[in-house]
Design brief:
3-stranded antiparallel β-sheet; about 400 residues; oxidoreductase activity, acting on paired donors, with incorporation or reduction of molecular oxygen, reduced flavin or flavoprotein as one donor, and incorporation of one atom of oxygen; about 5% strand; Cytochrome P450; 13 helices; two-stranded antiparallel sheet
Length: about 400
Amino acid sequence: MEMFSGPFFLNYMQIWKENRRFVIQSLKDLGLGKTKIEVHIQDEINHFQEVLKSFKGQPMDLIVPLTSSMSNNISSLIFGRRYEYDDPEKNILDENLDEVTNLLGHTAFHVFFPWIRNIPLLPKWLGIEEGYKKFEKSKEIFRKKIEEHKKTLDKRNIRDFIDSYLLEMKVRQTKNANSTFEDEVLIGCVSDVFGAGSETVRVSVGWLMYTMAAFLDVQEKIQKEILEVVGPDRNPDYQDQKLMPFTQAVILEVLRWRTTVPLNVLRYTLADTNVSGYDIPAGTIVIANFWAVHHDPKHWEDPESFEPERFLAPDGKSVVKSPHYMPFSVGKRACPGETMAYMEIFLYFVSLLQQFHVRFPDGYKPTFEGNLTITFKPPLSKINFISKN
């Protein structure tokens, strides 16, 4: 099975239709985008803040604890529990995800030129083989957890997504021996949700923190809005965003300006078509360029500049979105976890700025060039989180 072979990446229409529909409904039933998952996220943020406080305002690498924290939010949906940041299996999953995205991002031209896979030793030299090996290790952990769930499965107590899928698989296989619901597809589903749900949100929050350390005036303005709406002590909730237009605008602008996923995952055309005078035959690989859309001067004034106000109404009291804004894709193949992703981003962003001042170490000069893998990551830099208490 190929890497990223769950229903959000597959080209096989029947498998994609059946499984994607079920995955989305199952995640919603488990609390995706609802208060239930918000409670889990806020609990995880509280754990994360304790880690930040332990550095006592000294420069720290944000990415390592942030990775563990973000993947815990997805783990609660998939596996039914959060993990300690030093859990061995969880660390393997987090590290493999990071390394696979790096490897695939740096060697992605094998997607554009698939014939290079047949050149002896070239896949190994490019790191493609290493990426597959790490992905296989992650699959083994997913497979192990699925087998553990099978042994304790109880239809009267659905604990998480794996339980939900296993029960649905039993029903469908009883009705149809050729059902597309099977163990290998479940592994692909778990891989997709774990990977996409951890990586993109982590990178987005990383960029937000990096940007706030660089634009202290913007940080101060957001902290003022947080104080007015949330106060200094109450945990923020997702409904607060309705009263925080400037904070929303900053989030929207960072996700546009430093587009987390510059290129969408590959898709295939199902039939011959014509786009702007170009004939595109069926079976053609199509990759959407979100970075180009987000930086097109036809749609954005001075697109290379960081201007949160572009997402505000003239009076600054409400948010105005653009039809050319698509950080989580668009259409039927848009990210099914978009609501949860925005919720996580907002809650982490507001919670951290409520409790900390964010600064770069003395003498550090920020650069916004970033590191391009499958995602566009902020520069590797230490950041000071100075507790307000």
